[in-house]
Design a protein that fits this description.
The chain is α+β, with helices and mostly antiparallel strands and 134 residues long. 30% of the residues lie in helices and 26% in strands.
């Protein structure tokens, strides 16, 4: 369904894209995707919070009971307390949706182990004291 340039992407569409990219079968991807979604729903039903770093956080919120109004009859209607699902997007998700390059992940480069000043490399790599150079 397309409305104002917006397409609806289904689970089947996502499964096909992932299968093409990973080389897995569409059935395998569909099963895994279904299981992931089922586990998210199950954990939210237990009251747990689901966090995907950079992507976002799913959690639940309790909405208090209230009295609403039927718009047709204007009669008051009791609306019971209920839990609802919330999603808060992460920084990488926000940047991607906004069209900005996602922020670079902070990774610490592995520096080559260099001997300390005043030491020379030894067989064990720890360095041995040497005379200062003049």
């Amino acid at each position: 369904m397309q409305q104002d340039g917006v397409r609806t992407i289904t689970k089947k569409d996502l499964a096909e894209r992932i299968a093409d990219k990973t080389g897995l079968s569409r059935t395998q991807v569909r099963d895994v995707l279904g299981e992931v979604l089922e586990q998210i729903a199950t954990e939210l039903a237990r009251g747990n919070r689901i966090e995907f770093r950079g992507f976002g956080v799913f959690d639940t919120k309790v909405k208090a009971a209230r009295v609403a109004q039927n718009p047709r009859t204007l009669a008051p209607v009791e609306v019971p307390q209920r839990r609802t699902v919330r999603f808060k997007p992460g920084s990488e998700m926000k940047a991607t949706v906004d069209g900005v390059n996602a922020p670079a992940k902070k990774s610490k480069p592995k520096a080559a182990r260099e001997p300390k000043l005043g030491t020379a490399p030894s067989a064990d790599g720890l360095g041995e004291p040497v005379a200062a150079r003049v």
